Amino acid sequence: MPESKRYDIIIAGAGLSGLSLAWHLVKENYTGQILLIDNSFAPNNHKTWCFWGKKDHPFADIAHRTWKNSHFSALDFSSELSLKEHLYFCVKESDYKETILRTLQKAPNVDLLEESILDFSSNSSKAALITKDSNTYLADYIFQSIFMPSHYDPSARKYPLIQHFLGIEIKTDEKVFDKKTFTLMDVDSDFNDGFAFMYVLPFKKNRALVEYTIFSANPLIKKHYKKKIRSYLEEKYGLTKENYSIKRKEYGEIPMDDRPHTPLYSSRIMNLGTVGGFTKPSTGYTFSRVHKYSKKCAQALVKGVNPPTPTASSYRFRYYDLLLLRVLATNVPDSRKIFRSLFKNSPIDRIFKFLSEETNFLEDLMVLASCYYPPFLRALTVHPPLITQFDKDYLAPSKGKELKEDYFEDFEHVPNSSDEDSSQDAEEGSEKIVQKDRLNETVS
Ligand SMILES: Cc1cc2nc3c(=O)[nH]c(=O)nc-3n(C[C@H](O)[C@H](O)[C@H](O)COP(=O)(O)OP(=O)(O)OC[C@H]3O[C@@H](n4cnc5c(N)ncnc54)[C@H](O)[C@@H]3O)c2cc1C
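That is the input. Now the predicted structure with flavin-adenine dinucleotide docked in place:
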């Protein structure tokens, strides 16, 4: 028999952004009833999340590895760049999930449910989620990181680039890696694939994740990334296939186009993470942006005010991103020159601050002035400053989205989460809620 239950908040999707919001809500002592729902809470290890931050970063304790030194290389420039104000962190997906799920398990107001979500619906006062088993869950707000909203129009993208990469985590027979220095970019000199580079995260002297990353419109066949990595390992570290074993693979396609920002799925349903446009278009980094919003949102909900609509970057940063995307999409040699000049002439901490969109205008100018500028001047003529507009229509809630009122037929009969009846409902439907013991199994 399909069930229907009412919560204050539903978080649909327990990946990076869903777990982030749940974690911040618990940390901020939010007392409303929360449902976190995902296909599976099993702690996969398909991703490693890297980001820069201060040494007291909230996830510093679970970092698999941190670095203070980086290596950058492009064309004739090759240098070790030392981080003074930041650390570069790497968090394993499994550690992130395990840590947050353990915190959530202890929170009396959080239900964790493994079910597959079919769709969402909302009206001006309530939001509903329907699962493939035809169960309906209602809440004041749903935060979802699963579906691209139907009003998202991919044809509106100006430069539909993706950051696509394949990485292999290898264990070598010999100690060949400098574990204190990660390679942020070793820019490829081949023109064929698009703007491409190697990214190396050395975890130990004999263990590293080596990734071939490309910024271009289309992914390549997997064999090609592997071939590139094999040649790089041979050329750079003198490693042949016989000298290492592959422990893990990681493949990703991250949108880095100037995608219209889509903060709302429909009224009372907020988009989080990748589908919410949280990815920084010019870099693909998402982790820190997700956490920044989650913290702000949790604080608002604790105060009893409406959650803030996830905002796009300011005009200034969207504009800089657009200019760079144009160069990346149209001119690979110039792209290389831009990255070379940027890392040659600007301190890496300032670059990270700029990419975090925390610089003031003067600092922006210092970063921009350090870059090889002719391609930017050409891009300026195509997208003149101040005249260039960004997707303001997408900020309108429910644009083109039909509300599925039929899910709400019995809405008024559904008790509030704080009503006594609802706790009885919860008991009756308890087999649907992932039990703490079960979760321990999946988490460990
Ligand atoms: C391999 C890889 C490496 C990356 N590395 C970095 C990095 O180093 N730094 C960085 O900042 N960004 C990185 N990113 C980009 C970005 O941070 C991640 O893609 C991130 O996981 C996006 O978070 P999300 O919450 O939007 O989606 P996800 O983390 O993918 O979460 C979505 C969740 O929804 C669930 N789900 C999907 N469909 C359903 C359904 N129908 N019903 C129920 N549940 C469902 C999924 O199981 C999943 O748990 C990487 C991306 C990839 C792919």
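DSSP finds eleven helices and 18 strands in the chain.
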